[in-house]
User: Fold APC family permease from Altericroceibacterium spongiae.
Amino acid sequence: MNQQAATLYRPAKLPNLVRKKPDQGSKKTDSASGQGALGLAGAWAMGVGGMIGGGIFSTLGVVISVAGQWAWASFLLGGLIALATGHCMAALTVDGDRSGGIYRFLRMQGYDRAAHVSALVLLLGYTLTVAVYAYTFGSYLANVFNGPDWLPQAMGVVAIIVLAGLNLRGASDAAGVEIAIVVGKLVILAGLAVAGLWRFDAARLAVENPPGWFGAIVGAASVFMAYEGFELLSYDYDEMADRKTLIRRVMPLTIWTAIVVYIAIALAVPMLVDTSELIADGEVALAKAGQALMGMTGLLLVTAAAAMSTGSAINATLFSSARLAHEVAKEKELPSVFARENRFQSPYIGVLTLGGGAIVLTLLGGLTSLVTGASVVFLLVFGTVNVLAWREKVGNTLYAALGTVGAFIATALLLLHLANVI
Assistant:
């Protein structure tokens, strides 16, 4: 199943844009029932796989280091913003009745300049995301081999190169394969959650120098990239059966699934491994929990789940972002070279450029900085979704307002935190 990418623009620029006449001819006029084969299970797997594809494996140690015992609340707050955004994303998609995400919505509303900026910023965000997944992939595998300090980055680079090569051959995911991967990793994560919650002791959540409840808000902003992924469903819209009904059902369902999993893991893993160790070894926090629970078997199971999840996420993100660049280039908003395809119909310039950028970031950036940078981008992405829905009065305006305020307050707090102001 092909997955595409969502886009972003800077909301502060919107009032100053010269709004062109909307392209009314770009709206679909065919039946809303849809003729696609993607049903609820397949769509749910795409959304959940996009979020949990690398999210919890990458971010647990980061959020505990920021939020301490309030890590679970960070995932809840981030999830509420994502829920509001999912409602707005589904409403905008149904209103336009075509796939394409924010870039397409902005074009249809006549905000061409904002659409151009959105594509550039989101491509940066997806490059950061690939780097996060690659670093996490390498960290989990290097942990098994107990290799030198440079091994995580090296293995992450190898993963990008291999998966970029697959993309150059026109590789894509099948819905059935994605369902199997999602179910497999959820079973492993559920096992960790049940084992940890069975021996729950609130005292084990405590950290040295606890940050207080305010840490939950900063933590939610710091690891917001864990909720990136559900927006890809707006690009599968044309392939959904009964698409107008399905997308409104599956958006909140996928986000609630991620919220429940994230909160359960945030509460359970500290019952298996001391929080100090989770913070020190944040890149492989879940592997430590698996090893504490089942020894080498647990370590290998969690490592396998992390490798499958992050590898699939790297592949899907490269696939999506390269095709976003291809689409934008065809509309003359990026250099025409990005519209070129090889004999496998792969937009190879986009794959090579984005993969190369991700390799550089993997080599230069640590996990915390990569996660934080991606979180800033996707907070702006989701804030923009809500602004557009609010401005165009599409969907529930209360959800749009709450999502807008939540996303931009979180962005401001995160930037202040990065500047050591708070």
